[in-house]
Target: Penicillin acylase family protein
Amino acid sequence: MSSTAHPAAPGSSPDDDPTSAPTDLGADLGPDLDTDLDLDEERADEELAPRGRSRLRSAAVGVAVVVVLAVVATTAFTVVTVRRPLPDHEGTQTVPGLSASVEVRRDAQDVPHVYADSAEDLFRAQGYLQAQDRFFEMDYRRHVTAGRLAELVGDVPEAIEADKVTRTFGWRRVAEEEWRLVSDSTRAYLQAYAEGVNAYLDDRDPEELAVEYTVLGANVEIAEPEPWDPVDSLAWLKAMAWDLRGNYDSELDRALAYSTLGDSELVDELFPAYDESGNAPILRSRDLANRDSAEASPDDVTTGSVGDYASAGVQEAVDAARTALDSVPVLVGRGDAAGSNSWVVSGEHTASGEPMLANDPHLALSAPGIWSQVGLHCNEVSDACPFDVAGFSFAGFPGVVIGHNADLAWGLTNMGADVTDFFVERVRGDTWLRDAQAEEWEPLDVRTETIRVAGASPVDLTVRSTTHGPLVSDVLGVEDVVGSPTESGTEFGEYDVALQWTALQPGRTADAIFAMDAAGDAGDVQDAAAQFDVPAQSIVFATADGHIGYQAPGRIPVRDEVEGPVPSDGTWPRPGWDPRYDWQDWVPSDEMPRALDPEKGFIVAANQAVLPGGSGPYLTSDWDFGYRSERIRTLLTEQIDAGRPFDAADMNRIQNDDWSPFAGMLVPVLLDLEVDDSFDAAGQELLADWDYRTGADSPAAAYFAAVWRNLLAETFWDDLPESMRPSGGSQWLQVVQSMLERPDDTFWDDRTTVNVVETRDEILTRALTTARRDLTVELSKEPEDWDWGSLHTLALEHPVLGGPGVPGLVRDYVNPDPVRMPGGSSIVNATGWDAGSGSFAVTTGPSMRMVVDLADLDASTWVTATGTAGHPASSHYDDQLDEWAAGETFAWPFSRGAVEAATDVRTTLTP
Model:
């Protein structure tokens, strides 16, 4: 047996695996605190039925941090307490600031459709309604994005660390600059939204707004929430951009991998090029509407030699930067599994004769969820009031981010463009080396930020920046993390790492959102995309007059070709003392890839490469490797070739497809191996007649996942730093698929076995046998009793009260019951899990699913992973979860008649 340590068993307690759990914030906080909570005798009532057990989520650093606030709680957690914040959705309510009455219609899922005479009144009403349903979520988000989390939760070290990094970025400062940059109409909409929020906050105590304030108040003094400011909404866009920022992790991982491998060719093997022969890009050159500019040769970037550039000092600085940046709370979703599917099919292939569009963004999942469903309808659509739109909004920002209006439907997927670069800087005192060849030193930009901490003394933070961006490697005061770049240790100072990121320059994404909400054709989409600076998202769209299209937006940096110590394409941290590596400009918006009505009659955008290599502007070298997109293309092509037109049910069926490309690649090889022991071979036998589908009830899917987890551990854990253990996503599928053709590849050898050189078949056999034994412990001795859903569960967690350290009664109440899930990473039903964590638990997934039929918008469907409400006591807190998990959707009324027919609750908002 190998001496390689396997991940902790998914069925084990987090306490059994100290490497997988965040800091135990409640370890020394006294006896069982459930006894301190006076639960009313109505606990058995359905309204207070526990909603599930919490789980640890290693990515949710800033979410678990806040739970220490509740562990000394002695408040009475009664029915009255949890129901007090529930809003009234019926009758007539006064909203100061409205210019006329606004009608609100809510359906069985409590989704509001708002009807107003003016655009400003639409957004005032939206602000009021979202404050009713989601204010604590909004307040939490604005504290995170402003670097003020410790003001909300108190003296929690992780919260203070998160604030330090966010303040170093200066998200709020950039948002304040954007307020002066956006259009007059956008400012008016944001101001109206803020007025609506504040109208609801007025004269309400914190306990009337959310039960979270009641629990927080047991540990820190809770002041009345500050009025909502329009800049709070703009700052939220920075959090969205941060979580969807592109190849950030790959850039750092290359440098970290070099620290243990010491060979740039081995590093390159772990970051292979996109394989266009196997998985097609979104577009071919012939599809492009702007073919002339697309076929112009882009800036070719030279792959240099890493050489001595990746010294120990640089590695330590990069590692410190990674530690600091990982402390930022996950608000949207990160990593390989945080992708999305979106596709559009032309009317020639649909039952209705008009285009159909499907979208399901794969993001972090929590309760309450990321999205807030809404319809926003001007009573009379005009230039003054141009909105008749429905879809998915963010609580805290007006308008609709993804959805459709009467003329256009659009979906978004993360394009993955490289919009961040790390610059290794030479810093000496308060200066940095601007140009080594000219021996030019420049002063650092230095400012002081004060972080206020509820119940404790403020913390002062010195933020230092170069021309490239803020220095992030020393934010947390980590000692001994930087080294000297010279033997003398003084001439060039120390290494630090600066982050250059497109979102740290003010942009007009807010303008783009309102422009998309009112867009009607491809030209409107192109105009909106030109303003969609960050994050860089692929837009697929369909129009009511029969067109389908693709548009790439985003602010994309232009990098020069450089012969130097590292590649100049943004794949490695860059030397900040060489001005040749500086960004030169932005790719002009009219050169960004776009297409209209491609010959094949459909477009699939699922995070794969946008264009074939050598076509169009340089966007990135680090794409998703396209296994989801290729499966979608295959299913679309098969149905088209069979002559069966698509309807909404077909689109939803594809969204829920759970066929595994991992199995399709690896199982034939596994079945060729000889496993001598009959006990060990029992697992392998499950694979013989497996159809490669990963349903929740599948024994073979459970076994294969354990094989894949153990294969990655056996193959790579001995070679790489712990921080970059393989997550198991599409990158690793591509790497292993290539290595299967090289039985003696260096990575197959287990470095921990002295004087033994392992080969491919030995490692594969080891993975088979250890997986069988692991599942014997984790599930059952009998393989036929195994099932994927018992391992692959989604346990939604409240971002503040859902983690460890909170009294169990509170935690159980705010966290919905876990649900068994099919699917997995790089599967169309992309319920991602992290193979390096020791758990098969779902970490990301389709945050919503929508299908839009342009022939009959009322025949469209939608669903979110939770529900419309942010109040745990509401029946709509998680009332869509079971249907979502089962792959089902709800009717999506849009026309006034359909909305009226679906109305369960009516509200009139009056001035």
Q: What stands out?
A: The longest strand covers residues 356-364. The domain at 659-692+699-786 is CATH 1.10.1400 (Penicillin amidase (Acylase) alpha subunit, N-terminal domain). The radius of gyration is 27 Å.
